[in-house]
């Protein structure tokens, strides 16, 4: 009987060791990230907007229905915004051949008198390949799009599913570019597969 108990104890310790190793493996960490992000999902209607890009072309959110949209609210004076850009460029590159995913970088809260020129200059100098839309002050002095999304700090990122629902909202940036890409990719996958 003692031998049987020892064997059972040994088997249980082996199972626990395997589970512990699995949880530390990339597959276990991915599963953990997946579960964490599932708990963070929301489903709010995404406010529509029509904004101009750096060439003056109008882009409307409603025209992109059926795609997963990643919005990134930022400004040229925002250091954390610019710190997140290498990771965002990795994401843009990763999805460049996926027509079901669209990235829009919404420049807002600019204090400069020449915001379009400033953004063009920054994009040219930095080498980032982003589609930038300008959330300019309206006639009432408001940046309507950023206000409609309830943004209180930037960078602020939103992942919108194919049905036009905000599934994820993120504020700030911390961590590595690789970790940010992994997390954003998982959020995009969850938005793509949302029914």
From TrEMBL:
Query: Which residue stretches, if any, does this entry annotate as coiled coil?
Result: none
UniProt entry keywords in alphabetical sequence: Isomerase, Redox-active center, Signal
SUPFAM superfamilies attached here?
Answer: Thioredoxin-like
One MF annotation (Gene Ontology) recorded for this entry? antioxidant activity
Residue span(s) of domain Thioredoxin = 40-193
Note the PROSITE patterns from the entry.
Answer: THIOREDOXIN_1, THIOREDOXIN_2
State the superkingdom.
Answer: Bacteria
InterPro entries in the cross-refs: AhpC/TSA (IPR000866), Thioredoxin-like_sf (IPR036249), Thioredoxin_CS (IPR017937), Thioredoxin_domain (IPR013766), Thioredoxin_ResA/DsbE_sf (IPR050553)
Q: Name one Pfam family in it.
A: AhpC-TSA
Point out the signal peptide segment. Answer: 1-17
- Which PANTHER family does its entry note? PROTEIN DIPZ, THIOL:DISULFIDE INTERCHANGE PROTEIN DSBE
Q: What is this protein called?
A: Thiol-disulfide isomerase/thioredoxin
Question: Which species is this record about?
Answer: Pedobacter zeae
